[in-house]
């Protein structure tokens, strides 16, 4: 059913992590959230994130299992990295439903078919106008990259697939640097009664089915239903033609680790705060754009450092990767390293009362 009005304060394209985070900062405004799938459908993520991020989205009811360490496996052995704050694996559909309930915005199942200025054309044949526009459609950047846009959709594109099966597994978030995926890694994330097994190619190879089967066979398992997709790393301009961009649409997925939920949510919160300030007359659109650009730019060096680390992992023999992982596991090295990693997308001073998960040696 189409909304009665075709005019909105904000149109958000994409109803996953970044889009829902933007929407939560705009409660009480006339907002429509567009997505080609119903809320909570079409999972592509491994759904692992800091507990603080899940709580900040009001989705703690989606948590399946909490983890306090990373375990890096190589042919030469394993290195255990204690986490300075707990991560969790969670149920994607439940997460999205809880986050949307907190946002209290209108939802319309439709695909972005194009854009003319502030007017968004949809697959329903209906067009909607927004005072402000936000793109959170993932690597496709469907709204920002509409025909005629200045958006350049060139980023580092990794690709991963995953299958969840019911079986026992040691707690923790497990990463495997094994021959099955020479240009990436594999993972096993326990999630309650199930385990999420996946493989990722840093170089964007998409035919990973045989690698996933070989990896899972190490545990006496075979893939069930498989999901996955591209992961877009490499920061792009966060505002293009007046469209605010968050999450994978702007390359916010982290190189090396492939983590994207935390950065998508933090960017979404910042974006939503700024959009609200524009609507409230606290900032001009130009000021909001400049503040959002500065927010992303503060983490640019850390993104670049992760990119170089990603290139090193691609170039190094697996035994060398094992040696580096063991060396970094030393507390005096690992503590500051993870503190810097978890400090990506620090909160800028946008408005008194705006809140994000606090960071004090943690996220």
Automatic annotation (TrEMBL):
Superkingdom in the source lineage: Bacteria
UniProt-listed InterPro entries: FAD/NAD-bd_sf, Geranylgeranyl_reductase
Protein name: NAD(P)/FAD-dependent oxidoreductase
Organism: Candidatus Segetimicrobium genomatis
Lineage of producing organism: Bacteria, Bacillati, Candidatus Sysuimicrobiota, Candidatus Sysuimicrobiia, Candidatus Sysuimicrobiales
């Amino acid at each position: 059913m189409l909304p009665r009005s075709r005019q909105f304060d904000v149109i958000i394209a994409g109803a996953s992590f970044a889009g829902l985070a933007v929407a939560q900062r705009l409660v009480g405004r006339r907002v429509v959230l567009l997505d080609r799938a119903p809320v909570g459908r079409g999972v592509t993520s491994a759904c692992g994130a800091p507990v603080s991020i899940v709580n900040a989205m009001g989705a703690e009811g989606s948590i399946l299992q909490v983890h306090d360490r990373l375990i890096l496996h190589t042919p030469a052995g394993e290195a255990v990295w204690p986490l300075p704050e707990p991560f969790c694996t969670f149920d994607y559909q439940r997460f999205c439903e809880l986050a949307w309930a907190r946002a209290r915005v209108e939802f319309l199942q439709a695909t972005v078919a194009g854009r003319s200025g502030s007017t968004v054309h949809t697959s329903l044949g209906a067009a909607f106008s927004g005072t402000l526009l936000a793109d959170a459609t993932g690597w496709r950047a469907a709204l920002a990259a509409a025909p005629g846009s200045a958006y350049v959709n060139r980023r580092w594109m990794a690709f991963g697939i995953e299958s969840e099966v019911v079986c026992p597994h040691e707690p923790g978030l497990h990463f495997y640097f094994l021959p099955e995926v020479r240009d990436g890694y594999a993972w096993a994330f326990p999630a309650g009664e199930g385990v999420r097994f996946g493989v990722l190619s840093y170089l964007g190879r998409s035919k990973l089915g045989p690698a996933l089967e070989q990896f899972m066979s190490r545990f006496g398992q075979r893939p069930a239903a498989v999901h996955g997709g591209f992961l877009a790393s490499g920061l792009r301009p966060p505002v293009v033609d007046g469209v605010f961009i968050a999450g994978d649409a702007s390359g916010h997925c982290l190189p090396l680790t492939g983590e994207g939920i935390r950065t998508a949510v933090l960017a979404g919160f910042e974006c939503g705060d700024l959009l609200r300030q524009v609507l409230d007359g606290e900032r001009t659109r130009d000021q909001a754009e400049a503040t959002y650009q500065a927010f992303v730019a503060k983490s640019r060096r850390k993104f670049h450092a992760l990119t170089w680390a990603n290139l090193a992992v691609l170039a190094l023999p697996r035994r060398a990767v094992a040696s580096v992982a063991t060396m970094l596991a030393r507390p005096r090295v690992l503590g500051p390293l993870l503190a810097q990693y978890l400090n990506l997308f620090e909160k800028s001073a946008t408005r008194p009362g705006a809140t994000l998960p606090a960071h004090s040696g943690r996220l």
